[in-house]
Design goal:
Structural class: mainly alpha
InterPro entries: MRG, MRG_C_sf, MRG_dom
Keywords: Chromatin regulator, Nucleus, Transcription, Transcription regulation
Protein name: MRG domain-containing protein
Low-confidence stretches: none
Distance between the termini: 37 Å
Strand content: under 5%
Helix content: 55-70%
GO cellular component, one term: MSL complex
Radius of gyration: 17 Å
Oligomer: single chain
Subcellular location: Nucleus
Amino acid sequence: MAKTLTWRLLPDHIYSQQPPPPCLVYGATHLARLFVKLPELLTASNITEEKLKVLLRHIDLFIDFLSEHKEWYGEQCYTDAF
């Protein structure tokens, strides 16, 4: 169990990069904001109806996943820059 608690999502060298990469700076709130632009992007694409249905099904599942983890949102996820 102790070994499991030391696992990280990204390789160790990512955590020591300066400046930190966007994946360590931007959180779930920023990710959720991308969904606002999604209809515009999908309308402009040449994706077939069949592929669009599959994509929308996956996006729906992803949004459900994000809504199940509301602890990732809010002021507690931010720190002052100074």
